[in-house]
Amino acid sequence: MKNAIIFGGIGFIGTFFARHLIEEHHYEKLYLYDHESISDKVEFRKKMIEAYPQIEIIKGDVRKPINFIPPNKIDLVANFAAVHREPGHEDFEYYECNLLGAENVCNWADNFDCEKMIFSSSIAPYGPSEEVKDELSIPVPTTPYGGSKLAAEKIHQIWQAKDHKRQLVIIRPGVVFGPGEGGNVSRLIKAVCKGYFVYMGNRDTCKSGIYVKELCLAIMFVLQHDKAKADGFSLVNMSMNPSPSIEEYVNSIARLTKTNSWRPNLPSSFLFIISYFIDLIAKPLRIKHPFSPTRIKKLIRSNNILPSWLIENGYSYKYTLDGALKDWLKDSRGLAMKRSELYPSEPTEAFPYTPPTDEIMEKYAHIFEITEPLPQRFAKLVFDKLVASILLAFSLPILLLIKIAYVIEGLLLPENKGPMLFYYWGVSGGKKIKKWKLRLIKTKYIEPEGASRHDWIAFSAEWTPESRTVVGSFVKTWYLDELPQFWSVLIGDMSIVGPRPLSVLHFERDRMQGNVTRSLLKGGLLGLGHINKGTSEMGNSIYEYEYINHYQSLSSYALLKLDLWIIWKGVLVIIRGGGH
Questions:
Q1: In this predicted model, what pLDDT tens digit does every residue of 105-116 receive, in sequence order?
Q2: Whole-angstrom distance, CA of residue 397 vs CA of residue 141
Q3: How many CB atoms lie within 10 A of CB 93?
Q4: What is the pTM of this model?
Q5: Which of 123, 305, 515, 530 is most buried, judging by how many CB atoms fall within 10 Å of its CB?
């Protein structure tokens, strides 16, 4: 029976390492010692920890003497507890946590005769430098964080030196990234996908980093290696080899999320001036912001770390940078994370779309390789124009009656009056379009600032029943709020059949979780996936990929037959009155 304790265990690295020990090394009991509560963590970590009955959380602070008495012999101690966000803490806080934590963890390991320990240090002790640093390089820390980590390393080395049977592995990881981390790489992904990332004269700046799953593999490789066992003490840099540049990170993200990789390049001096100005205003007001001069410095300075120990001892990397990000993308809680983690108040119906599974990515690999929107099919285009013209003509009397109903309701219930039509920005075939709709909700539930930008979120209260007008409830039940989109089909923004067009917000989220369909084909009033509304299959992304596959492979006649079948199934959904 193997048991381990992880100090700082419910942190980002701790949760992944706990899972790795259980799944890959069959540890039967894991104690996660942390002063924070699991309820304060993101949904991703909570679910990960709750999935394993082998895990027990112990509440405690490593800055204070550790009184926990384990009922079983502890085979492995991992000290991941740290104050590390920089900037973000007072200088003394780094030393208080990293030094007192090291002393208390080592004292505890002494008391319970633990013989194996892992300590997570950092590359910060090396200090900033354009030169390549390996484990033999002399550390020159320039920050309280780097200095406190170096001192903590020495405290752990003293613990190991007391007994030749003890084994200590000190790791110096670069930026650790992966699902649920919410750190530098997550921010970079968001910036690239949202289109506001700019280079700051730092295209070639090297940023050593390692995928969190690779880190777990590499730690256990070192711990079990004969050389590490014989030496007793091992100091190991943990990073990809070679360290990627900022441009390589950006290009990799752009490839995998199908975004434009071109970014403007601004001089760093210009950004320094802006960051100091923002900091000058924000600090007295205690406003947190991501533009501190310290962060700007970190972005333009290289930390090019060479993992010599791993290279010399034959470690075989499992993940490239592309491979790591792709693995992250495949995880439904990866780039988009859990819906409840990012959008706690949004109902599932607002965004039911799932990430592509391994099966989808393998079966439709050719679709993921497409980088431009698919060419229009002439017969489908003619069909769209003809049907849209006819249905728009039939819709005009209905829209007139609805307008009269809106006016009457506004007279009887003044709080319900307001315009009948509105639009928010959506995406169809990778292009930004005006998505026209009929107003369903009372104007007091419309967020004015968002509405002025035509942002979907301003109108998202439609999912709250009490927000709807009387006419709006009727209109939604029978999908009449979609009638104006026949105009969108007529002017070429949409199609009768295709993947449902999403708001810009939801399109970005769908793309971030790995889907590409809405970048390739015009959005449709009806779709192969949308006709499953009201069933458990609604939102399953496989149907969108099936339709694109048919779009590419079927003859014009066969594609028209498929579209007519989808329209018929859609009519049945409408007749059932399933709008909500």
A1: 999 999 999 999
A2: 75
A3: 15
A4: 0.59
A5: 305
